[in-house]
Amino acid sequence: MPHRPAAGPRGAARRTLRTGPDIAMKILSGTALAASFEDDLKREAAALTGQGIRPGLAVIQVGEEPATQVYVRSKVKTAERVGMHSVDHKLPATVTQADLEAVVDRLNRAPHINGVLCQMPLPPHLDGGRITRLIDPLKDVDCFHPYNVGLLALGEPRFLPCTPAGILELLTRSGIAVRGKHTVVLGRSNIVGRPLSILLSQKGWDATVTVCHSRSEGLVELARQADILVAALGKPEFVRAEMVKPGAVVIDVGVNRVADPTARRGYRLCGDVHFAGVAPRTSAITPVPGGVGPMTIAMLLRNTLVGVRLQHGLAEG
Ligand code: NAP
Fold it and tell me: Could you tell me the residue ranges of all domains in the chain?
């Protein structure tokens, strides 16, 4: 049985809007849910710190790509907010593979660090796959190491991959059951689409899962069959109203920067779903930003606590 997020809807995570005579659409706020999740994480981190184990997360960042910097800052700040020790290892874009591996090796051996991740993608001269395999599987809070991916596929996960876990938590805590539902996942990446589809199809979650990718034929018709449609393509506003069954739940994983001369920064963020067109057809939908993103970070910190327990032989908190 896969370990599952705690059940039970929490009102703070939803806002209900009546969009037509039959459909009351809920906006699933990951921001609100992650905030309530942070309270639990804070309590657990404080309890461990009281036992002399302050949870520690190390994030390795190579180069100065602005989007990467935003993600890393957000992870480090949230870790600190819940009372964890966090280390932000900034390395220049010119770092060598050997030097990067030496940093990973040092963090693997550091007793005060319970979770290690290297923000991807790396510059092309670096071998990201080797780095993923080098991270100690007991500190692999992203759940990217082949050993942890194998355990996940067998239904015996130690860590859950952050974005898929965040989506499942968001659904569960919003009172949306996936059991027996046809879930269509657009995208098959190792970070989102594939692990999410593995989890959803396992005993305990019991969804019926269709996975689509860039070679899928009849994608519009497949998407229209979904009770729950997950968009994880990295294509701005790809999902349009005609791809969505009335009353479906839509989870938008995409985070895309789209040029917008009217915006202060010269761009705006949007998801893989055309929100304005799609939302009125749905029974529930996640916004971008403020949907899946904050939940991903909350799950990363939950994994850091899992790492503490694994490394110290403690029972599940
Ligand atoms: P990715 O590695 O680029 O994978 C994209 C997937 O979408 C691939 O499987 C690709 O198919 C498929 N795809 C692309 N174009 C398609 C099309 N026209 N029709 C059907 N399938 C298509 O991306 P990713 O890492 O999964 O990320 C997806 C999006 O989620 C990005 O916007 C990313 O920024 C965002 N993201 C958000 C979070 C969060 O916390 N909110 C976390 C991770 C990622 P092929 O396999 O055939 O190429």
Answer: 14-30+160-295, 56-113+119-151
Q: What is the mean pLDDT of each run of 10 residues along the chain (317 residues)?
A: 44 58 81 96 98 97 91 95 96 98 98 97 97 98 98 98 98 97 98 98 98 98 98 98 98 96 95 97 97 98 98 87
| CA 271 / ligand 1 centre spacing (Å) | 11
| Helix ranges restricted to H, 190-280 | 193-201, 219-224, 275-278
For residue 213, which atom of ligand 1 is closest to its CA?
Answer: 21
In this prediction the pTM is 0.94
Task: Pick the atom of ligand 1 nearest to 292's CA.
Answer: 41
Buried b (16+ CB within 10 A) or exposed e, 133-165: ebbbbbbbbbbbbeebbebbeebebbbbbbbbb
Q: Which tens digit of pLDDT belongs to each residue from 33-49?
A: 999 999 999 999 999 99
Helices within the chain (DSSP H only): 30-50, 66-81, 97-109, 128-134, 146-153, 162-173, 193-201, 219-224, 275-278, 292-312
Q: How many CA atoms lie within 13 A of 72 on its CB side?
A: 23
- Measured in whole angstroms, how far is the alpha carbon of residue 32 from the centre of its chain? 15
Residues 6 or more apart whose CB falls under 8 angstroms from that of 221 comprise none
CATH fold, domain 56-113+119-151, is: Rossmann fold (3.40.50)
Question: Coil, strand, or helix at residue 114?
Answer: coil
List, for residues 150-188, the tens digit of each pLDDT value.
999 999 999 999 999 999 999 999 999 999 999 999 999
Domain 14-30+160-295: which CATH class? alpha beta
The residue to mutate among 192, 235, 273, having the most atoms of ligand 1 within 8 angstroms of its beta carbon, is 192
